[in-house]
Amino acid sequence: MLVHDTVATGRPVAETDQIRQSLQARYDELSAEYEQAVLQSQVLRLVEVGDTAGDDQADSGTKTAERDTAQSLLRTILDRRAQYERALARLAEGTYGWCEGCSAAIPVERLEIFPSATSCVTCKQTRERRAA
């Protein structure tokens, strides 16, 4: 195999390009989802500001719950988008697909299910046990 046909991970350039396109497509989807959620959140705020007359505690509580749910959705989308951004950076560095904990290859099946994975199952389980 020619040197210029592989990247630092030993992956063929075509495979790396396919991974990059897949990660970038999901990142772009999350960005669009985020923009849509921001617009919905802004509409919700405008409705709240213009429609507070006659609100009782139940109405106020419902509006607060809706606002909290919208904010939670925004945080979740941003977190997922950051994971894909990190995966793209790792791909560019040549470290994508390798565990940050033990440097072992992350199984392809895990990356197919969770493309932004940065650790193998064993390291992930160890980290979760320590956190519990």
UniProtKB/TrEMBL annotation:
Pfam families: zf-dskA_traR
Keyword Coiled coil found: yes
Gene3D superfamilies the record matches: DksA, coiled-coil domain
GO-annotated molecular function: zinc ion binding
InterPro entries attached to this UniProt entry: DnaK_N (IPR037187), Znf_DskA_TraR (IPR000962), Znf_DskA_TraR_CS (IPR020458)
Signal peptide: none
SUPFAM superfamilies documented for this protein: DnaK suppressor protein DksA, alpha-hairpin domain, Glucocorticoid receptor-like (DNA-binding domain)
Zinc finger (dksA C4-type): 99-123
Residue ranges that the Swiss-Prot or TrEMBL entry lists as coiled coil: 13-40
Keywords: Coiled coil, Metal-binding, Zinc, Zinc-finger
Membrane-crossing residue ranges in chain numbering: none
Domain Zinc finger DksA/TraR C4-type: start-end pairs: 94-129
The keyword ATP-binding belongs to this UniProt entry's keyword annotation: no
Protein name: TraR/DksA family transcriptional regulator
